[in-house]
Design goal:
- There is one protein chain.
- The chain has 697 residues and is mainly α.
- The chain is built from 30 helices and no strands.
- Helix 5 runs antiparallel to helix 10, helix 5 packs across helix 11 and helix 27 runs antiparallel to helix 30.
- The chain starts with a helix and ends in a 23-residue tail after the last helix.
- The C terminus is likely disordered.
- Belongs to the EamA transporter family.
- It is found in: Cell membrane.
- InterPro entries: CynX-like, EamA_dom, EmrE-like, MFS, MFS_Cyanate_Porter, MFS_dom, MFS_trans_sf.
- It holds the Pfam family EamA.
- This is Cyanate transporter.
């Protein structure tokens, strides 16, 4: 069999464990006691294993070794007792969360018993797992009130005994055949269960027949299949990948409890489940990858590209989802137009404040680590906006703004470093990813409010953040030379470069026009007679129209030494769309929105491409990116708030739209200067822009 066949076998073994809790809850609901359910599983399961052993090759074993393996099975029996006891008072979807604490408990045991100090990656994975456990257990809000602390204690005891079983089973009987070893473990577990719960149900024939129906499933999925599947697959996939694959138990258990037991699983609990799995992957992936470095370069590249796409996908939904909901937020929170504009402005202030420091943080800790930290902060900030409070709304918005700033600045440098010959293509890919999810967020924000309210509609994008965190984990486990091998660049040189200021100005006016549109286009269209939902989808249409331009412009710009022709095309599209908005014609609104969307997609992706094309090294790209985005977003930060103020002051959209016209005009002139075939060369002295060698077309 191929490696993926063995991986699938281990994955199925984890899935088998995942169905146990559902069958146990069904057995309890049918009137059977914990003693009857636990006893039938272990007794019948052990008998089944010994039947299998009879048909396998026999090995002579010393009595002392047999006794050691039997005693090592005691924690296995206690795990079943404690876990099934927890299921009497906890939902199946919650009991499994407590059981999965065995991951960090096992690490703690290794530290105490073997002086094996956990690595930094392991500690980070445990923190992620614990945070995910808090979410998955529903401990936010009223979750604590509904939690059975008795059940929680039993679940935690099950995690401790399971950690003990994993520890002793890994050091006892290493040369014993897996099936025989599993039978002995199960026998030891059965001894403990029978001592605690004498099997009196065996003497009651009707009870024995009834509980055996459930015992059939429990012994099959809990005692027979998993050891068999693991014994086949684990030797071929290794302990690291094996642990990751066997974590399939968790989502299967939660999914079964939702589908069959009809337990209510909130979106935050699912996020917690994803985080727990992410923590397990992070803690074990290095063991899995370490043995396959010679054949993993292609996989590593694919994971890196996927990670970049997901990082980019998280950089706009938290912002574009606000525009269609600005009216609901303003009404529900009692905000003025200026205050409502701050919801879009605050992230831009964060962009401006932290962008200048982000390159230094990237050099100090590594771009991969800082992008990972940014994703976590972005996810937390998005979740904070779920709490219906003005303070949490603005604090969460500020936090996600700082997080996006870090990711905004470091992504271009990372791309220049990892893909030096494909800057245009990779910029097109990640700018398109931003556009796709920006448009999606704008389009579904209003429909989501029907079931989640506006705060839930904003917070739902935390799911995307969690997914990105999990996918980015391999990059921080295998980060290369991005830290500690980067040449120090003097900041003063970049700031004295005319070309750097021209790129910065183009980025600033591009961002100014973009964020004004994101924040206020729906309101403009609503005042012209469109419904709230239609206006939201118009913003989504603008974002979707930007996609082809977002992808194609960087590819084309990278092929030509001079990009000024693209600047002219962008300005024509922008002016056409804005003139159409001035005419206030609802029938042609879609056309004007498409023109604006194309211009925005092209201009924003071109601004990002300039960062890679106007600098010759990854560290120069980082410094130029920090400068351009810091000052550029400082200019953009005043846009939404000033737009709202002018609307309140004039009671008309005419003057605010004139500001947008002015931004497009300045964008055109600065773009003509930034689009020249020049390099920024910051050397700490008076700067000279140098003509680079012509690119091969």
């Amino acid at each position: 069999m191929k490696t993926w066949h063995y991986a699938l076998i281990v994955f199925l073994g984890g899935c088998c464990f995942g169905v146990l809790s559902t069958f146990v809850k069904i057995a309890y609901a049918a009137g059977y006691s914990m003693a009857e359910v636990t006893g039938s599983q272990f007794i019948l399961g052990t008998l089944l294993l010994w039947v299998v052993v009879l048909f396998t090759r026999k090995n002579k074993m010393k009595l002392s070794l047999v006794l050691k393996i039997l005693v090592s099975g005691f924690p296995m029996g206690l795990t079943g007792v404690f876990y099934y006891k927890a299921l009497q008072t906890l939902d199946a979807s919650l009991a499994i969360i407590f059981l999965f604490q065995f991951v960090w408990i096992g690490t703690l045991m290794e530290w105490i018993l073997y002086r094996k100090k956990p690595t930094r990656g392991k500690v980070v994975s445990i923190v992620i797992l614990l945070f995910g456990s808090v979410l998955a257990a529903g401990l936010f809000g009223d979750g604590v009130k509904s939690l059975s602390f008795e059940g929680a204690i039993w679940g935690f005891l099950a995690a401790i005994t399971f950690s003990t079983f994993i520890l002793v089973s890994s050091i006892v009987g290493k040369n014993v055949p897996p099936i025989l070893k599993s039978a002995l473990f199960s026998t030891g577990g059965s001894i403990i269960v029978l001592l605690l719960f004498p099997p009196v149900f065996l003497l009651d024939f009707p009870t024995l027949v009834g509980v055996s129906q459930f015992g059939l499933f429990l012994r099959l999925f809990g005692v027979a299949l998993p050891p068999l599947l693991f014994s086949i697959g684990m030797p071929h996939v290794g302990p690291g990948l094996g642990t990751i694959l066997s974590a399939s138990e968790l989502p299967v258990a939660v999914l079964m409890s939702a589908l069959i037991l009809a337990e209510n699983i909130s979106i935050w609990q699912w996020i917690g489940v994803i985080l727990i799995i992410g923590g397990i992957i992070m803690g074990n992936l290095n063991r899995s990858i370490g043995k396959r470095t010679s054949s993993s370069s292609r996989t590593t590249t694919i994971l890196l590209i996927l990670g970049i796409v997901l990082v980019a996908a998280n950089l706009r939904p938290a912002l574009t989802s606000v525009g269609p909901l600005i009216g609901d937020i303003r009404t529900d929170m009692g905000l003025s137009n200026v205050q409502a504009g701050l919801i879009t402005t605050i992230p831009l202030i964060g962009f401006a404040g932290l962008s200048i420091l982000a390159p230094r943080l990237g050099r100090r800790f590594g771009n991969e680590i800082m992008l990972f930290a940014g994703l976590i902060a972005l996810t937390i900030g998005t979740l904070m906006r779920f709490i219906p409070s003005i303070v949490m709304l603005f604090m969460g918005t500020a936090l996600l703004g700082l997080a996006i700033a870090v990711c905004n600045v470091l992504l271009p440098g990372l791309i220049k470093h990892k893909f030096p010959g494909k800057v245009g293509m990779m910029t097109g890919i990640y700018s398109t990813s931003m556009g796709v999810f920006a448009g999606l967020a704008a389009g579904i924000s209003v429909p989501l409010t029907n079931s989640l309210n506006w705060n839930g509609s904003l917070a739902v994008w935390a799911i995307l953040g969690v997914i990105a965190v999990v996918i980015w984990i391999p990059q921080i486990l295998n980060k290369g030379d991005s830290k500690g091998q980067v040449t120090k660049v003097k900041m003063g040189g970049m700031w004295r470069s005319p070309l750097a200021w021209q790129v910065t100005s183009f980025m600033g006016f591009t961002s100014l026009a973009f964020y004004i549109t994101v924040a206020w286009l729906p309101e403009i269209l609503i005042d012209q007679g469109l419904s709230v939902a239609t206006a939201g989808w118009m913003l989504s249409l603008a974002q979707l129209a930007a996609l082809p331009a977002s992808f194609l412009i960087p590819l084309l710009a990278d092929r030509y030494p001079d990009q000024r022709v693209f600047v002219g095309m962008i300005s024509i599209l922008y002016v056409t769309g804005l003139v159409g908005l001035f005419n206030s014609s609802i029938g042609w609104a879609a056309l004007w929105v498409v023109c604006i969307g194309l211009a925005q997609g092209a201009s924003f992706s071109l601004a990002l491409t300039f960062l890679g094309l106007r600098a010759s090294t990854p560290e120069h790209v980082g410094e130029l990116s920090g400068m351009a985005q810091s000052l550029g977003y400082s200019l953009a930060a005043i846009g939404p708030m000033l737009f709202g103020y002018l609307r309140d002051f004039t009671h008309s959209w005419t003057v605010p739209l004139m500001i947008l016209f002015a931004a497009v005009l300045f964008q055109f002139f600065t773009g003509l200067l930034a689009g020249r075939d020049l390099y920024v060369v910051p050397d700490g002295e008076r700067q000279k822009e140098m003509y680079p060698a012509k690119k091969v077309l």
